[in-house]
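call fold(seq) -> tokens
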Amino acid sequence: MPEEDLTWLAHRAAEALKGAFNEVSRAAGLADLRDWLVLALVSDGSQRTQLEIARELDIDKTTLVAIIDRLERDGLIVRNVSERDRRVRIPAATPKGVEVKNQVAVARDAAISARLSAIPADEHARFHSMLWSIVEGP
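ret:
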């Protein structure tokens, strides 16, 4: 039975959460979760090259360029010249981009809470901690 297979369950749970996240991302004008991930990363104040962003988010470089192009076209990010290397561009969120990132984060939290409603609220932190243990590994 598939529901007894932890890998299957983890995959299905991740897909359910990803679907909920994609829904709120699209409602805010983003294409999907990946747009929000890029926007969130370039909003944190750190300067990262596109290659560094691609590696950190595990997104193919070609796909990342398309995401950044779309976010820039929509006025959510700008590409600044790197202070270290004038040939390199550093994506950064615009004020509008930060606003959209924050809006999606609030909607994401509500969507995730709805998906987790079957788990008692006082166990959410424990569940989160267990998931993080799996991600970190032994």
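The mean pLDDT is 92.
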